[in-house]
Design goal:
Length: 554
């Protein structure tokens, strides 16, 4: 029994003549034959677009392909002066199109589509016999009544349909002899069926749209978590809030600082990364009573308020680690500056000597919240001076990055206890690439950039290039895949520009797509903790380019 390829079962076929014909063919032909019913198509002609529908297509791997037109009616007549007519079982007659002409045009449509798909070598004859014919399941053709353009082999009437195998075999034999293809090439039928007659059609949500949906989910989940934990902070005037990347620390810190300032409490919001401080200061600029700064910016600001304390010109990090606290305490005493509330984000990066001076800024019973992540302690500091805060608030639910990125990043530092929010998007797989030299790495970077910008359609503001090395040490050129490469800025980049940053310089920030490169075997800046920081900056897409020989345990 042949395979019927139709959305409908035999009994559900509406047209009586097609149902009858299909049943005969399916029951009589071998199980290697595919019978396609009602195959629609659209073609472009010299006169514009033309659509049509093929009644039947037979695909027999051992013999070839036939396009068949089925015409019902108890009488089918043709006259040169009057054309083709079909008389139904109710006695009514109506004008019909030339069925043989229809079959031929439909055959050409299938043939041309096969050639367009380039399934077989261009210019070569198709490796199987193909032809057309007509079936009249309810009428018997009188001898000698066929038009000149219709050989008898083309015609299968009700009498011939009693033995479908014989009738179909005769039609195949005609076309095989006509085309000299008595032995079709092996394996031709699968591609014709899979690419032309029954291709699998899939229309998936684009990655860009999926990312937009994931971003909206991140916002909702973070908002939900922030509302929950802010209730905890409202009930505790001082707390140490611990959470890994993606658990919403910065959003919660912002919420609590804003809430306190709006309640009339003079609030100081400190963070370590100058980029993050600038970003937060811009976002919170309309909140009165709220100051956002880094430790260095705060010290400089207070020193400028008094003539008694002056910072050296361009102090380096060593100065701040050893003398920052001293200068801040002197500036506090000289200005009398005090705050009602202190919120410290990125507390894990604050030098241990800074905490005593910061505590001078608030009253013993004032509001004091420190947010930290031990796994992002890139400055090798400790939290001993503030571990006496009366309340510990653990954040253990990731709601800012896809599940796959979170798991990949966490494996680098063997984090425990961090779980994904319910229904969090799994996201795209993290893509890792090994390189052996500079040119190979740059070539891979260009491929990724073109994919992000041109294939997915991300804007430049959604992409960041991160390296554990400084720009001078990095392989990053001034132009990449035709795009300008500029240091990261809070200003939105033009679409012909991409931003880059060091891994540590981008702490506290995040991006839709992160491309982390320059990960070198045995390099101190490529240790797992540093790579973890870079990977955890990605929200939806993460690409990691590492030197041959590097692995997460090196």
């Amino acid at each position: 029994m042949a395979h019927l390829r139709s959305p409908h079962d035999l009994d559900a076929i509406d047209t009586r003549s097609e149902q009858k014909t299909c049943r005969r063919l399916v029951e009589a032909l071998s199980d290697s034959v595919h019978v396609f019913l009602s195959v629609p198509y659209v073609i472009e002609t010299l006169y514009g677009t033309r659509d049509g529908e093929i009644d039947l297509v037979l695909v027999d791997p051992g013999r070839g392909l036939l396009v068949l037109e089925v015409k019902g009616g108890k009488e089918i007549t043709f006259g040169r002066d009057r054309g083709w007519f079909s008389t139904g079982h109710d006695g009514s007659a109506h004008l019909i199109k030339d069925p043989f002409e229809q079959a031929m045009r439909n055959l050409y449509a299938v043939r041309d589509r096969i050639r367009d798909e380039e399934i077989f070598p261009s210019g070569d004859p198709l490796p199987f016999a193909y032809g057309h014919g007509c079936i009249f399941p309810d009428a018997v053709v009188a001898r000698g009544s066929l038009p000149m353009h219709t050989p008898s082999e083309f015609c299968i009437d009700a009498r011939a349909l009693q033995d479908p195998e014989e009738a179909i075999g005769r039609l195949f034999k005609y076309w095989q002899g006509n085309q000299g293809t008595e032995s079709p090439s092996e394996g031709w039928a699968g591609p014709v069926v899979g690419c032309v007659l029954a291709p699998t059609f899939e229309a998936e949500e684009s990655l860009r749209v999926r990312i937009q949906r994931e971003q909206a989910q991140f916002i909702d989940l973070t908002e939900e978590q922030t509302n929950t934990y802010n209730q905890v902070l409202r009930a505790n005037r001082q707390a140490l809030v611990q959470g890994g990347a993606g658990t919403g620390k910065t959003v919660l810190a912002q919420r609590r600082a804003t809430e306190l300032a709006k309640a009339g409490e003079e609030t100081l919001y400190l963070c370590f990364n100058p980029l993050l401080a600038d970003h937060l200061a811009e976002d919170l600029s309309e909140v009165s009573g709220l100051t956002v700064a880094t430790f260095q910016e705060l010290t400089d600001m207070l020193c400028q308020r008094t003539q008694k304390v002056a910072l050296p010109e361009d102090p380096d990090q060593e100065f701040w680690d050893h003398w920052g606290e001293v200068f801040l305490v002197e500036a506090i005493e000289a200005t009398g500056t005090r705050y009602d509330a202190l919120v410290v984000d990125e507390a894990h990066d604050f030098h241990k000597t800074w905490w005593s001076s910061l505590r001078e800024l608030i009253h013993p019973e004032g509001y004091f919240y420190a947010f930290y992540d031990r796994e992002q302690n890139g400055c090798d500091t400790n939290l001993e001076p503030i571990e006496d805060l009366p309340t510990d608030v653990p954040l253990s639910t990731n709601c800012r990055t896809t599940s796959r990125i979170r798991k990949f990043a966490d494996e680098l530092v063997d984090l425990g206890g961090i779980t994904d929010a319910a229904h969090l998007a799994e996201g795209e797989p993290v893509e890792t690439f090994a390189f052996s030299d500079r040119d190979e790495q740059i070539g891979r970077l260009e491929e990724i950039v073109r994919h992000l910008k041109q294939d997915i359609g991300l804007s430049s503001s959604q992409i960041v290039l991160l390296s554990p090395l400084t720009r001078r040490e990095s392989v990053l050129p001034d132009r990449l895949a035709g795009y300008h490469v500029r240091p990261f800025s809070l200003d939105y980049p033009s679409e012909d520009t991409l931003y880059h940053s060091t891994t540590l310089g981008y702490k506290g920030m995040d991006a839709t797509a992160v491309v982390l490169f320059d990960v070198l075997e045995g390099h101190v800046a490529s240790q797992d903790a540093h790579v973890h920081v870079g990977c955890s900056r990605a929200q939806n897409l993460l690409y990691l380019l590492h030197e041959d020989g590097w692995d997460s345990s090196s």
